[in-house]
Input
Amino acid sequence: MRKYSTLLFSVLFVSASLFAQETSKKEHQQGHTDQNKFRQLKDVLATPNDQRTASGAPGHAYTQQKVDYVMNLHLDEAANKLYGEEDITYHNNSRDHLEYLWLQLDQNVRAPDSKSPLAESKKASAFQTPTKFVAENMDKPKDFGFKIEAVKYADGRDLPHTINRTMMRINLPKPLAPGEIFKFKIKWNYLINNSVEDGGRSGFELFPDGNKNYTIAQFFPRLCVYDNVEGWQNMQFWGRSEWALEFGDYDVKITVPEDHILDATGVLQNEKDVLTKEQRNRWAKARKSFKNPVFIVSQKEAEENEKRGTKKTKTWHFKANQVRDFAFASSRKYIWDAMAVNINGKTVMAVSLYPKEGNPLWEEHSTRVVANTLEEYSKMTFDYPYPKAISVHAKRQGMEYPMISFNYGRPNPDGTYSDRVKNGMIGVITHEIGHNFFPMIVNSDERQWTWMDEGLNSFVEILAELDYDPNFNTGNLPKDIVRYMSLDQSKLSPIMSQGDYVHNFGPNAYTKPAAGLYMLRQTIMGPELFDYAFRTYSKRWMFKHPTPADFFRTMEDASGMDLDWFWRGWFYTTDYTDIGIKEVKPLYVTNKPNEETKKLQAQYPSYFAKLGKLVYLTTDKEDADKSEVAAYINSLPKEKKANLKELPQYIYEVEFEKPGGLVMPIIVEITYADGTKERQTFPAQIWKKNEHQVFRVFTSSKEIKSFVVDPDLETADIDTSNNSWPKQTTNKFDAFKNKAKN
Amino acid sequence: MKKVFIILLVLPLLSFTLHKYYVALTEIEYREDTQSVQMIMNVFMDDIELAINKDYNTNLQIASKNQLSNIDDYFYKYLQQHFKVIINDQETSYKFIGKEYDGDIIYFYLEIENIETPTSIEIQNDILIEHFPDQQNLVKATVNKKRKSLFLSSSNGKGLLKF
Output
């Protein structure tokens, strides 16, 4: 019996692979190294060692330093100055001898002799308001910056030190040995900036009635990180890239005007000294109130209080363990509310501080958003380990510290507010409270890699916001980063860049990594594999210092998915996604060979003789003839016939093109003539041998009306005009115009 | 008045999620079937509101309950002053088909009619530049399957595309 071969693609495939093509004479080509998009990241990532393993976990010899602070602070409201004394205990847990210690002096970024303004390229302005003209050309610089009054050994002798702008080196007379502890003291003061007028992540806001809201941070000389990646992370603070900080225990006493309401990082130690009996009762109530916030200080009380003013003082005492920083907010204008949040059986307090200018928006949303953020982030990473999280209202601020954050969102004076203001507030509170997880606890080096906290945080923020409001416009989805990724290359930097020289810093370090992780979760890995790996990373590096390699390695190691192609493309390059359909050939089963096949058959008669009767495909609908193959199928044994799928009525060969540099999965949505749709996804590895052109064949019993690549805009495709077959004749413009007419 | 410029100073120093970049994208497509040039421009709502409020001494209150009823007139006026399209060496006028809000972005739909064969399109675009010197205005145009782009900024406010 003659065998019927059912090599459906024989015409196209055979000619390519089995028969040598005549090659024209080629010029000598240059050789190349492995440039395939799927090559592993071994050329870029640091070699694993016994402190950071190849699986992305802390190694058996991992160490980190610890720094404890005991502080006494005094806020001089009249002069807007903060006076401080700190006793620092530095634990050298490394195996190295340290000749010196480095501390950060962040306030010096705005000192009169700061180099930060000098490092900005500045052109003349053709027009300015008179205020701005005077401010830029005639104002004398304000006396900002740390005034270091004393640096001493614990026993009171002076300790030699050298200041290099925003960094201070303690010149140890004898190296600090591994395992040794070094204690020393610093006394300092500084002029607090008006954050609304002078800028900055902390400072005070002045109100028309003379009252000030103080949101105080970066207020003390504090230790730099020492590790086996940077040595001392003592890169200058120029103003943009943030901080690398060590964990430690803080014991802080803050003296402020007696009528101020104050909250800070840590647990209040002397409630009886600073709170009234009524306030303590309300706290007790709040600690049991899981459904609604409880006012500790109501708006009415705050409005009364802000009229006061006093020369007397009060000292608030806080203790915080295993935190990397300290901040506080203090004002006589504050309304204070709090509610309890159940984090897997443990009670955590969600707290808000805001002046009446924040209402009615703040009393309705702030504390609830804090609670939602703690719940959602805990699900994605680990149970929030600190006792509380505070959201403080501050004009035009959005900044994070352990257990406390400063957030914007102010209604109009008449109490009205737009959706934009409300959603902006919900977004910033979610984001800043979320920072407790990244970098306050998963403590990455922000000076070097902004994205490790901003990007990861912005990603989890998406999920938290959608939980608070499913219609929330997060602005961090793959489709939202398309515009940025289409920019001129001179304005683009890879995510893996140090932040100080990057253009378009926001999309570079926040949105693009967030969108990439969202894509990884929703499209490439799927939530189950992604969430397990992400949680593994978070738990491995909780209260430790991870690097990008640790993140990249953990995500692969814990999921079983090779992601190096993704990390390399999305994080290390400025390539973009552009995948489309070049051509679709509808094909029909026929019993006649086409011209090309006839030529091959004439060239290789004995090969074709061996193949026997063949099934042919043609692009000509008129030549369609299934009779022979149908007869063959009919001749098959009954069991085999019963096990077969339907004979395809329609066959389409689709050629995909990839004008963009990134490799991505190909998501195809097929629409049939009867209106039904189906999805098929081809993994990114489809591009492994040819990253410009791949083919797939689709068969079906129903006619296919259209193919659309990435219909839900999941891959940040910057040009969707080549994503459809047939090419779309109506576009977004027409759709809008028609809608506008009706 | 002072507040306008303060925003520029304050924004770069914070750690929040507000867009910290200034990019507007205009997509232009020539439609042979209707002989028209269709343009969709997207800009950040906050930025254009600030620019228009300042330039025309008004308070648009975009996307709020108190949004000005004649807000489209302001948009159209601002666009006409800062976005010009010259086709085949002739200045054209475009119709304001409408606008759409999407989160913190506004999409403007503009159309130029009766264009037979556009061989050259010159764009003059200084949208938002006066108030936001870092603004980048990206223009992508497609004519008869040919695609070209322009990157306009404060140092370069106009460009010519040939098809």
Q: What stands out?
A: The radius of gyration of chain B is 16 Å. Strands of chain B lie at 23-31, 36-44, 83-87, 90-91, 95-102, 105-112, 120-125, 136-143, 146-152, 158-162. The longest strand of chain B covers residues 23-31.
